[in-house]
Amino acid sequence: VPLAAFWGGLVQPGGSLRLSCAVSGSAFSNYVMGWFRQAPGKEREFVAGIVWSGGSTYYADSVKGRFTISRDNAKNTMYLQMNGLKPEDTAVYYCAAKPGNSGGDPRGYIYWGQGTQVTVSS
After folding, report:
1. Is residue 72 within 8 Å of 79, Cβ to Cβ?
2. Containing H/E element for 119?
3. DSSP symbol at 114
């Protein structure tokens, strides 16, 4: 399941960005898709997950109410809408996929896209 993440960038605190993750192949309907991030000097952390077939979503506490994960079946694309961005959201963001439907479990992801940098700074 090739993945490619796009549309990071530099944004001021309080601003918004929408990340995209293009998904190749046709087998991902039975997959869970997720967003992770890694800040300098920190471990990679789970941000959000979505069960592709049913659309159930899951979020890390740090982003609940600010970030929204979604997918577009017709475009084979997953999104992460990020609102109310804070400096602590600065990180490289990765999209990832795993088979199954355990969207709330951050473990088991086996396919990873390249990262896209998000920088929140004034």
Report:
1. yes
2. strand 116-120
3. P
Cα distance between residue 113 and residue 100, in whole Å: 18
Give the total residue count for the chain: 122
Q: What tens digit of pLDDT does each residue of 14-48 get?
A: 999 999 998 887 667 788 999 999 999 999 999 99
| 60 neighbors 72 (Cβ within 8 angstroms) | no
Q: What is the dihedral of CA 98, 100, 105, 108, to 10 degrees?
A: -40
Q: Residue 46 CA to chain centroid, in angstroms?
A: 8
Using 50 as the pLDDT threshold, list the residues of the chain that sit under it. Answer: none
d(CA 26, CA 12): 37
- Copy the structure tokens of residue 91: 């990180």
29: DSSP letter? G
CB 11 within 8 A of CB 119: yes
What does the block give as tokens for 63?
């982003």
